Amino acid sequence: MTAPFLQVEGLSKRFGDHQAVADLSFTLARGAMLALLGPSGSGKTTTLRMLAGFEQLDAGRILVEGRDVTPLGPAARRFGMVFQHYALFPHLSVFENVAFGLSKDADRASRVAEVLRLVDLAGFESRSIGQLSGGQQQRVALARALAPEPRLLFLDEPLSNLDPSLRERTRAELRAALKQIGITTILVTHEQEEAFALGDLVAVLKDGRLQQLGTPTELYEHPQNQFVATFVGRASALPGTITAPGRVRVGDVDWPTAGSATGAVTTVVRPEDVVFTDSGLPGTVVERRYLGGRALFRVSTAAGTLEIEAPMASAELEAKVHVTARRSLSFNRDSV
Predict the structure, then answer these.
(1) What integer pLDDT is reported at residue 120 of this predicted model?
(2) How far is CA 268 from the centre of its chain?
(3) Does the pTM of the predicted model rise above 0.70?
(4) Cα–Cα distance between 127 and 304 in angstroms, integer?
(5) What digits encode the pLDDT tens for the residues 199-240?
């Protein structure tokens, strides 16, 4: 079995009485992209700073290709970093910004040209930073981080300064460039859509603790607890009872479910998991939101409030409705 490229073991960090990161462990294969996802204060940035060597660990160790790099400073670790606000030098040209961390030898110009081609900025060498758009500045920051050929790349909220219309296109460009280079990458974000678009794996953090690590599909389809279910995508959490293998009772009706727990559970219902029907769990539409070709409904039931995404053709239905599951639902084992 191939050894992991990056091995993180038991990272912990406390600031006074606040436990910022607690016993965090994971592994990452060479060339993989990991997104650290969580709300503000979940420990994402502290984790990134510990990995980069900017923050001292209280406990744990970091191994790269089997070598313990924990005692090394940031420069000796040979990791690259793209900061949230890019930290570009406005008085320097694009070339000078990208070349800033390179030794002044004969290969300097060719290396700058190479990384600018990778980020689709060939020919921009003489431009000033002020002449660039936000997306172009982000790519200059990426080129500068890649120029010294780091072993590992860190991205701290890399797209947060871009407007929504530019962000989606830049995500695709960023992922394509990093996959072409084949560099192992860890990024921090608080946006689920960004984590799913960029990460091969996503680590969900809350209060400094790892809640779940998996592919975007695994996190969305099989959340391990209620926090992950409701933080990753839209979801309604309703009390339920497992009545038989593969069946969960929500309100007065039985719905299909995945898993083998028994007794009281919290049932996780995605907006696309349920549909309007002629019979099933009765409810009342309390809110409608239009989403272009589809609509999002909030339906009050005896078991709790559900969100349902349905075609616009459903928008004219009466307030009194019935809903039923269209596929197996997820649940966690926390007793309600």
Answers:
(1) 86
(2) 20
(3) yes
(4) 57
(5) 999 999 999 999 999 999 999 988 888 899 889 988 898 888
